[in-house]
């Protein structure tokens, strides 16, 4: 039941909220004599009640266990993705997002924005009970303009939904590699598509954004309109506003050929040599992609090709020469991006997950050193039978991936990619829901420090850290380079002048941490 004071507060600000007028988060903490609560929990309760009064059943709390946000707490991609928040609001329009930001501003409540909640960093798309979540899942509209080839996608869409919908129109888009990955977090974090070397990063496919700014205004940006905001959003994350619609360039239906096979882990030297050799071949074949995913009990190698050739692509010959293959888990298949996403999607048992990433130049000896470090630290962890799986993935990126973002005529992105062959190596630790967080996180911390040191000592470490694979403690924005850091700071100050997204947002790779 909402208190009379809060009801009075809502009524006194109702016309203001619905008008979506400019507001300031540093005006005195009162509205027409009504004091704003002082503690974080009280502010969250005030925001929850105002949201409920405005939007009713689309504001969900922990006492509604059947709602989608509540179900997400018990069945997440990672239990660290979702924390129990004071309230989850599911808007159906940009105007409702604006109203929610006005309520958040007036109550000074902490908040987070969630699309699908795929990021395992606590607080990035979640809050505790001292904050509220703007859950964008219902913003899942889709439309397609056949004249321009541009798809308009609401922020709540997943790539699996988008691929299937577009393929019905004979079109494809360069998006996430797994079905369950959301459009919003992927694009705003740069986004590494399955065929990154073909057309660049996911953010390089964007032709425009619809954004709700901290002052409540909804604006559009593109290479021609607000180009500074447009560029900064391509990798700059949640520093500027809430993106409600993405306008993405599509292409004629992309046919794909792929296979995933398991190899014996004790053949790691030959597997690493094959991975390096295939990467070098990829520099002259932008249609090729692969991943080498190393576990204690097996190594999974995925060979992906953006066409359906009758002959085996030459680029994968180093893998065909390996003699340690145990079994193909995905036989050679001719398909599309949607079938590829279904085939390679990683759906581990329910549990906890922590990640980090390191970007390096391509070097066999470094990879072997990293493997030895990984082996040593893995040996200190509980066995696989206990649900513990520390694995790493070699992800090759060619110089053409960086050039694609620069040369596609859309003003570039904010990532600062170097035009060199590189590996975005991702380390993932998955463990049981009741596992010891301190033990597992300490192992990841040691692994990070030792891998980083090995790359630094060899002069092979790159500054860039891909946001979608990074741990919350990594210095992601600085890795974009001084020029892009300056751009992101300037754009954040210009479009979020009162600092709503820096001061009240729960977490993320934010300007406030620079």
Automatic annotation (TrEMBL):
Q: Which UniProt keywords apply?
A: FAD, Flavoprotein, Oxidoreductase
What start and end residues bound the annotated signal peptide? none
Matches recorded under InterPro entries:
FAD-bd_PCMH, FAD-bd_PCMH-like_sf, FAD-bd_PCMH_sub2, FAD-linked_Oxidoreductase, Oxid_FAD_bind_N
Q: Which PROSITE patterns match?
A: FAD_PCMH (PS51387)
Indicate the segments forming the FAD-binding PCMH-type domain, all copies.
Answer: 81-253
The record ties this protein, via Pfam families, to: FAD_binding_4
GO molecular-function terms, A-Z:
FAD binding; oxidoreductase activity
* Family per similarity comment: Belongs to the oxygen-dependent FAD-linked oxidoreductase family.
**What's the protein name?**
FAD-binding PCMH-type domain-containing protein
The scientific name of the source species is Neurospora hispaniola
């Amino acid at each position: 039941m909402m208190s009379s004071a809060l009801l009075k507060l809502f009524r006194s600000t109702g016309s203001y909220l619905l008008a979506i007028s400019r507001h300031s988060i540093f005006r005195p903490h009162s509205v027409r004599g009504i004091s704003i609560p002082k503690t974080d929990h009280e502010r969250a309760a005030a925001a929850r009640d105002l949201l409920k009064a405005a939007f009713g059943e689309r504001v969900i709390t922990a006492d509604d266990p059947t709602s989608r946000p509540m179900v997400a707490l018990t069945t997440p991609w990672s239990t660290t993705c979702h924390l129990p928040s004071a309230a989850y609001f599911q808007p159906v329009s940009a105007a409702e997002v604006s109203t929610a930001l006005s309520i958040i501003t007036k109550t000074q409540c902490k908040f987070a924005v969630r699309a699908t909640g795929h990021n395992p960093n606590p607080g990035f798309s979640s809050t505790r009970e001292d904050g509220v979540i703007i859950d964008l899942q219902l913003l899942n509209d889709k439309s397609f303009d056949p004249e321009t080839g541009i798809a308009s996608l609401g922020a709540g869409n997943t790539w699996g939904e988008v691929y299937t919908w577009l393929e019905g129109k004979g079109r494809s888009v360069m998006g996430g590699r797994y079905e369950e990955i959301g459009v919003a977090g992927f694009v705003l974090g740069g986004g590494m598509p399955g065929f990154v070397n073909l057309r660049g990063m996911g953010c390089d496919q964007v032709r425009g954004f619809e954004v709700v700014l901290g002052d409540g205004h909804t604006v559009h940006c593109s290479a021609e309109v607000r180009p500074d905001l447009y560029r900064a959003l391509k990798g700059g994350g949640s520093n500027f506003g809430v993106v409600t619609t993405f306008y993405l360039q599509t292409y004629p239906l992309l046919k794909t050929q792929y296979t995933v096979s398991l190899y014996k882990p004790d053949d790691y030297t030959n597997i690493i040599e094959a991975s390096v050799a295939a990467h070098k071949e990829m520099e002259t074949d932008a249609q090729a992609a692969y991943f080498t995913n190393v576990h204690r009990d097996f190594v999974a190698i995925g060979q992906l090709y953006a066409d359906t050739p009758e002959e085996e692509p030459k680029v994968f010959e180093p893998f065909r020469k390996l003699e340690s293959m145990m079994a193909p888990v995905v036989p050679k298949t001719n398909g599309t991006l949607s079938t590829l996403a279904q085939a390679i999607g990683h759906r581990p048992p329910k549990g906890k997950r922590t990640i980090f990433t390191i970007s390096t130049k391509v070097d066999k000896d470094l990879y072997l050193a990293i493997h030895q470090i990984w082996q040593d630290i893995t040996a200190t962890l509980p066995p696989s039978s206990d649900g513990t799986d520390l694995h790493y993935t070699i992800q090759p990126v060619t110089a053409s991936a960086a050039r694609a973002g620069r040369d596609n005529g859309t003003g570039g992105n904010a990532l600062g990619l170097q035009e060199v062959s590189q590996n975005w190596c991702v380390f993932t630790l998955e463990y049981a829901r009741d596992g010891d967080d301190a033990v597992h996180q300490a192992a990841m911390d040691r692994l990070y420090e030792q891998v980083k040191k090995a790359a630094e000592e060899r002069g092979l470490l790159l500054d860039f850290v891909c946001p979608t694979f990074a741990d919350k403690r990594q210095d992601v924005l600085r890795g974009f380079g001084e020029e892009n850091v300056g751009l992101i700071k300037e754009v954040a100050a210009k479009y979020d002048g009162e600092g709503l997204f820096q001061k009240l947002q729960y977490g993320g790779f934010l300007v406030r941490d620079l």
